[in-house]
Design goal:
It contains nine helices and eleven strands. With 371 residues, it is an alpha+beta fold. It is globular. The chain is 28% helix and 20% strand. Strands 8-9-10-11 form a four-stranded mixed beta sheet. It folds into two domains: 152 residues, no CATH class; 129 residues, no CATH class. About 10% of the residues have low confidence. Helix 1 packs across helix 5 and helix 1 runs antiparallel to helix 9.
């Protein structure tokens, strides 16, 4: 990237302003806490699930426990999984570190309500909140059932897609907690069958398929099974989980084959393998998934991030299956050198602090990459 002296100064100024904005967002979040209202006592003691999407069993930090010798500051934090949406309406789970408090499930939901502080937090991740401004939340959790009462603001959503995303995000968020397996909704204290644009809110909701791709008209859903694939967002900042219906057995072989086909909407998500690259075979030996691609795979390094996000998506897709602990990649039968540990299994698909750090690193690298 060639920049003149003035352009370089302007780019440095923009980067500095972005860093300051991120710092202010963090300071604001720490000052105001994760919620504006007091937490409900009904979800007291709820802890994040030890089985978040696409991850192995979490460490102590993910469940809120503090390792021996941790600082007082670390001990006062807990990791929780917040569901945002991107500019195309895909739900994106992000692991965020928030102050420890009673009623952490309600506190997590309140992070998803549109407000100055929450929107700043979401924007620095390139994402958006899913609940309308001023929405009030009451929550009670008992015997695996979360009863949530949303205020009347949720009746003013823009359309059915926004309503559906909101309901799905709430259910996905709450069922990340071990104490919740079902969710029931009240709207302004009353039971309703649907929201304004027809989205169902009656009955008990269980965890469902996330970002389900639109089925082809000729596809018989009764003969299909869902498989979860992971793709980098077009922003290159986050990984998006997508559910695809397939006729084949939804195992690692099918998942990698479908991943190699790419997303159905390539204007919204990025492909994991380079154009023209084919999958030769998939083998699993002693918990290691060995993926063999054609020679075009080496073009992955031409991605703006050197292929880091694509490799992460590939690892997440493989390690979701029981017994798969790691991934090795081969190109025309020769082991591929991923370098710098890009094939390591991530603690979670999207971690808030890492997203911001990686963005700053990428922009800095672009700034000083002169020819």
């Amino acid at each position: 990237m060639n920049l003149s002296g003035n352009q370089r100064r302007m780019y440095l100024l923009a980067l500095a302003l972005m860093v300051i904005a991120v710092a202010l967002a963090c300071a604001w979040s720490l000052w105001r806490g994760p919620v504006d209202a007091a937490s409900s006592s009904g979800d007291r003691g709820a802890e994040p699930s030890d089985r978040p999407i696409g991850t192995p069993a979490p460490d102590d930090a993910q469940t809120g426990a503090s390792p021996a010798g941790a600082s007082a500051e670390s001990a006062s934090k807990v990791s929780t999984i917040v569901y945002y949406q991107d500019n195309y309406g895909y739900l994106v789970p992000v692991m965020c570190s928030v102050p420890m408090e009673d009623g952490i499930a309600k506190a997590t939901l309140n992070l998803m309500v549109q407000s100055v502080g929450n929107d700043m937090q979401a924007a620095r991740l390139g994402l958006r909140t899913v609940l309308p401004e001023n929405t009030r939340i009451d929550l009670d959790i008992s015997n695996g059932l979360a009863r949530i009462d949303l205020s009347k603001e949720v009746l003013d959503m823009a359309d059915a897609a926004a309503e559906s995303n909101m309901i799905s995000a709430i259910v996905q968020t709450l069922t990340e907690f071990d104490s919740v397996d079902r969710v029931e909704f009240l709207i302004d204290g009353q039971k309703r069958d649907t929201l304004t644009h027809g989205t169902k809110v009656s009955g008990a909701f269980t965890r469902g398929d996330i970002n389900l791709e639109s089925a082809e008209p000729t596809l018989s859903l009764s003969a299909c099974a869902p498989v979860t694939l992971y793709f980098p967002a077009d922003s290159g900042a986050v990984i998006v989980p997508v559910t695809r219906m397939v006729y084949s057995k939804p195992d690692i072989n099918t998942a990698v084959m479908e991943l190699a086909k790419g997303p159905t909407r390539q204007d919204m998500l990025e492909s994991v393998v380079p154009a023209g690259c084919g999958l030769i075979d998939v083998k699993v030996e002693d918990g290691v998934a060995k993926l063999n691609f054609t020679g075009e795979f080496v073009n992955l390094v031409q991605n703006s991030d050197g292929g880091r996000m694509a490799l992460k998506a590939l690892v997440l897709t493989c390690t979701q299956f029981e017994g798969i602990r790691s991934v090795e990649i081969y190109v025309d039968g020769q082991k591929y050198d991923a370098a710098q540990g890009e094939l390591g299994v991530p603690s979670f698909m999207n971690v808030a602090d890492s997203i911001v750090y990686d963005y700053i690193q990428t922009q800095s690298a672009m700034l000083f990459d002169f020819e």
